[in-house]
Write a structure and sequence with these properties.
This protein is of the alpha/beta class. It has a single domain, classed as 3-Layer(aba) Sandwich (Arginase, Chain A), CATH 3.40.800. The protein is built from ten helices and eight strands. Helix 6 links the parallel strand 5 and strand 6. It is globular. The termini are far apart.
Length: 304
């Protein structure tokens, strides 16, 4: 067979060989959902999932911090073809993703959804809330995303968590540092736990345990929705609405580690990465964070 005749292999997370990336056997499944329609500032989040997968192929399989290769502990990591979002609005994408994610949850897979704008992952969140009892949705984000509508659209990316509250009421928000007055009022009325970024930094300066407050606010089952702008833009500038004063790599790692130790993390999505041409480190950072999460969630029995 000539090079021209060979089938083109779909890019897979970490560039794992087929036997370690088989959706029928892998314990972890990565599902890209490259939807973007309502971005109001920086654009490009539809390209985020592909950029993260491409960057992941440069991540070392051996994690020097964990002392093992997490993909082995996970039983492999499969990468699905991107969700077809052609001619879809936010609500249609949510229903399509809900159905697709639900199929894999029935098969007892750990799903990692790579979204475009934050609204793109609402269906994944709903599928997990339906599959597991008493789930806490843990939102890591710079913004509250609690507006009932924005620019006349209830499915605007600024409304993502409002759409989650339409079907689920246990939401914990972490890293918030930008919100409308009405959004703060909504959080108070709904009894949401909101841990602001400035309070996390203050407690870090005081060497106080800020993670415990978050753990105590969650149920046993936790779903994590991770908007890339939760991190400080000095680390991840490639996002549509960057906000100064974000969380650090060390803080996010510490939170995910404790969360996986003390709770059952049932799923993860990563959204709102908008790649910047010529700048690779934001998508590499997110790829490495996802792989580190797999290591925390599927701990290795044997360490090097």
């Amino acid at each position: 067979m000539t090079t021209v005749d060979r089938p083109i292999r779909q890019p897979v997370f970490l560039d794992l060989p087929p036997e370690q990336a088989n959706p029928q056997t892998a314990g972890v499944v990565v599902l890209p959902a490259p939807f973007e329609r309502t971005s109001t500032y920086g654009r490009g989040s539809a390209r985020g999932p592909a950029a993260i997968i491409a960057a992941s192929q440069e991540v070392e399989l051996f994690d020097a911090v964990l002392g093992c290769e997490p993909y082995e502990a996970a039983g492999g990591i499969a990468t699905l073809a991107p969700l077809d979002v052609t001619d879809c609005d936010g609500q249609a994408v949510a229903e399509r993703l809900r159905h697709e994610v639900g199929k894999w949850l029935i098969k007892n897979r750990l799903l990692i959804t790579l979204g475009g704008e934050h609204t793109s992952v609402v269906g994944a969140i709903r599928a997990h809330c339906e599959a597991y009892p008493n789930v806490t949705v843990l939102q890591l984000d710079a913004h509250s995303d609690l507006r009932p509508e924005y620019n006349g659209d209830p499915w605007n990316h600024a409304c993502a968590m409002a759409r989650v509250l339409d079907f689920h009421d246990h939401l914990v928000q972490v890293g918030i540092r930008s919100q409308a007055k009405a959004e703060r009022a909504t959080a108070q009325e709904r009894g949401l736990t909101v841990v602001h970024a400035h309070d996390i930094h203050r407690k870090d300066d005081e060497r106080a345990d800020w993670i415990e407050e978050i753990i105590e606010a969650t149920h046993h089952n936790v779903y994590v929705t991770f908007d890339c702008d939760v991190m400080d833009p000095s680390l991840v500038p490639a996002t549509g609405a960057p906000e100064p004063g974000g969380l650090t790599w060390r803080q996010v790692n510490a939170l995910l580690r404790r969360l996986c130790l003390e709770r059952n993390v049932v799923g993860l999505d990563v959204n709102e990465l908008a790649p910047i041409e010529g700048m690779q480190f934001p998508e590499f950072t997110m790829a490495k964070l996802i792989y580190r999460f797999v290591g925390y969630r599927c701990p290795c029995r044997h360490r090097f």
